[in-house]
Amino acid sequence: MLPAAARLRRRSDFVAVMRNGSRAGRPLISGQLVVRAGREESARIGFAVGRAVGPAVVRNKVRRRLRHLCRGYLQALPSGSLLVLRAGPRAATARQADLAADLDLVIRALLRRQGSVTGR
């Protein structure tokens, strides 16, 4: 799973990313990324899974699936960056392979916009 230190938890961090982050989206997942220059801390990732996805059990399952997939992208993100991933309603019924494909496309698009494309 995603280490606790790599998770975005504070509301102020979520708000900062939502206001200032570059955006990329796919049918299952959309994401926003803020790269904070000069920070030596590791990248952190937060998840927004709204009620449109389903009841609490389904939302938590989607969040767990995304956390599992994001583990492989931590090293690809620039240090000090904050990433918020928002799951769409179709993420609840999507296959893991489809979720992974959309996540890969979203993260690559966000990194490309930041000018730092790296492989996983």
Task: Compile the SSE list and pairings.
Layout: H1 11-20, E1 22-25, E2 29-35, E3 44-49, H2 56-70, E4 81-87, H3 96-114
Parallel strand pairs: 3-4
Antiparallel strand pairs: 1-2, 2-4
Could you tell me the radius of gyration in angstroms? Answer: 13 Å
What structural class do you assign from the helix and strand content?
alpha+beta
What do we call the CATH topology? Ribosomal Protein S5, domain 2
As a percent range, the share of helical residues equals: 25-40%
Q: CA-to-CA gap between the ends?
A: 16 Å
Overall structural domain count: 1
The averaged pLDDT comes out at 89
Number of helices: 3
Care to describe what's here?
The chain is built from 3 helices and 4 strands; from the N terminus they run αβββαβα. Helix 2 (56-70) links the parallel strand 3 (44-49) and strand 4. It is α+β, with helices and mostly antiparallel strands. It has a 4-stranded mixed sheet, sandwiched between helices. The mean pLDDT is 89. The longest helix has 19 residues, at 96-114. It has a single domain (6-114), classed as Ribosomal Protein S5, domain 2, CATH 3.30.230.10. 37% of the residues lie in helices and 20% in strands.
Which structural traits does this protein have?
about 120 residues, 4-stranded mixed β-sheet, globular
In short:
The protein is an alpha+beta fold and 120 residues long.
